Amino acid sequence: MRISTLQAFNNGVAGIQRNYSNATRTQEQISTGNRILTPADDPVASVRLLQLEQQQNVLSQYNSNLTAAKNSLTQEEVTLNSVNTVLQRVRELAVQAGNGALDPQDRKSIAAELGEREDELLSLMNTRNARGEYLFSGFQGKTPPFVLEGDKYIYKGDEGQRKLQVASSLTIPISDNGKSIFESVTNAGRLDSNIVAQPPASTLSVSAPLVSDETAFASDPGFPSQGIEIQFAADGSSYSIYQLPRTDDGAGNFNDTALPGYSNLSIDDDASSSDLLVFRGVTLHLDGTAQGGERVQLTAPVEPRNKQGILDTIANLRSALESPANGNTGVRDAVAVALTNLDHGMVSVDQARGNIGARLNVIETTQTDNEDVALVNKGVQAELRELDYAEALSRLSMQTVVLEAAQQSYVKIAGLSLFNAMR
After folding, report:
1. Cβ partners under 8 Å of residue 160, min gap 6
2. Closest of 132, 135, 161, 130 to residue 146, by C-alpha
3. Sign of CA dihedral 53, 56, 61, 62
4. Per-residue exposure over 273-310, b if at least 16 CB sit within 10 Å of its own CB, e if not
5. Do 58 and 126 fall within a single domain?
6. If residue 128 lies in a helix (H) or strand (E), which one and from where to where?
7. Quick check: is 410 in a domain?
8. Is 39 among the domain residues?
9. pLDDT in tens, 67-98
10. Model pTM?
């Protein structure tokens, strides 16, 4: 086979360039520490590395969301702790106000502190986060959740709950709306009492009904949905309880049967003391002296008031202490309702705090899981991308020897020429 001088030169140069390129590439791998410099080096590993980097970016976003969720829930928890502290102080003031030995001036002093606590609680319920959004407004972050209109506190937010995705299939709430925590509180004073029949000589008066036991009120048999009627015997010393509506013979004579276990119950005829009636979770005070024939009905109002906000509970108590409607009995009734409603409110706040604690625990475990996945991810990336230095150095040494041999052989072959033999 004939080999021209040009062909010999081209082959020599191509071999040197190829060997030089291999040595240079190995040196670049050593300097960067990466085995894969371009996707062509290992297409399969390159695709896998791209997937792992995408997963790592998603995990980084999840970690950012976890941090934001933790900060939001921590602020909400701190705020609710402060709310609970204020409610405990308000409850102490309510208990103090129930002391029958206090004079009107003492009660006004208590009412003054209740007013300050009411303002403090309003400020806490309208707390903003670091972004300037209200914590308890639901989705209406720019709207103050609670506003005083007239003598009532109105909730201006919505019932939304902001959420963040913290894992591929896990979304966690990072806020709670104020209506669910502070407004949807069971109202113990949701029933009305009304004396529908009373002889002229009777001094009987009744307090506002108090739902003191929610379990007994709602259990079977619970408090009748249409209410009850208390009818006093002719001698005024005993009474029976009937379920509404009652049936009569058309002449005003009732022919229905008293509820079992609640008939011919005796009462104290001392007008200076109060008799306590407890019926299926409802507490009622009977004051004065009954003459006989009195009928008292306990019913739900036409416009239900099953729920009452915490701020309204405090405001109602403050108003009752400032100007009691029925003297000591009015204060007694207002304090009883306020204490029960405050207890319900603190239960609602504690439930919200418990939910926040559960979410914070989920965030903590999710952060740990994400860190573990990220660590495994980085390990796989290192295994695919990073260079084996011992192998690379050995390969570079071999490539250097080959390059030097190619260079030396090229010099010798380049010196071979027919003209040199003809000199």
Report:
1. 138, 139, 140, 177
2. 135
3. positive
4. ebbebebbbbbbbbbebbbbebbbbbbbeeeeeeebbb
5. yes
6. none
7. no
8. yes
9. 999 999 999 999 999 999 999 999 999 999 98
10. 0.79
- If DSSP codes are grouped into helix, strand and coil, which group holds residue 100? coil
Instruction: List residues bridging with 153 in a β-sheet.
Output: 148
Provide the strand spans (E) within 17-149: 146-149
> Which residues, 6 or more positions from 348, have their beta carbon under 8 angstroms from its beta carbon?
181, 182, 184, 185
Q: In this predicted model, what pLDDT tens digit does every residue of 354-363 receive, in sequence order? A: 999 999 999 9
Phi, psi of 196, deg, nearest 5: -95, -15
How far apart (Å, rounded) are the C-alpha atoms in residues 138 and 392?
60
Residues 119 and 98 both lie in one domain: yes
83's tokens: 């709310």
**Cβ neighbours around 3 below 10 Å, total:** 9
If you compute the radius of gyration of the chain from its CA atoms, what whole number of angstroms results? Answer: 42
319 and 205 in one domain?
no
Token readout for 243 is: 């379920």
The mean pLDDT of the chain is 83
Give me the amino acid identity at 351: Q
Among 273, 304, 335, the domain-final residue is 304
Domain that holds residue 379: 34-188+305-386
For residue 311, the domain's CATH number is: 1.20.1330.10
